[in-house]
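Anyone up for a design puzzle?
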């Protein structure tokens, strides 16, 4: 399965039906990060894929392309949030997400329950 940068206008209106998990926060693509009091990104997940959408891009990551999900790096949120390593060509090798609500541990546990490799 190949991930694609699909226009989100048709998908975003149906998030609650398509994705069982959803968080608002900020994202980092290794080059830049979103910031501020308003969400700069949304992370959604179901058993088939993770979708990270925000001002830095729109990334669909099939479960079989996700290599590992772990704790975020020091930059930009001092180890808070999650770091997603994957093998989707054309995307940054690592993507990070910092949620407004929820702990890193809780998010990792919920993603693990969907079958994603965490640790």
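Challenge accepted. My sequence:
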């Amino acid at each position: 399965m190949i991930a694609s940068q699909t226009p989100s206008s048709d998908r975003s209106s149906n998030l609650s039906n398509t994705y069982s998990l959803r968080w608002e926060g900020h994202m980092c693509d290794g080059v830049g990060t979103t910031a501020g009091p308003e969400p700069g990104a949304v992370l959604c997940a179901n058993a088939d894929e993770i979708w990270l959408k925000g001002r830095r891009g729109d990334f669909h990551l099939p479960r079989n392309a996700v290599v590992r999900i772990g704790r975020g790096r020091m930059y930009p949120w001092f180890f808070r949030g999650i770091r997603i390593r994957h093998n989707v060509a054309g995307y940054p090798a690592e993507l990070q997400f910092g949620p407004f609500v929820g702990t890193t541990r809780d998010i990792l546990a919920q993603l693990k329950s969907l079958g994603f490799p965490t640790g």
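A detail worth pointing out: Strands lie at 21-28, 41-45, 49-54, 57-62, 66-71, 82-86, 94-99.
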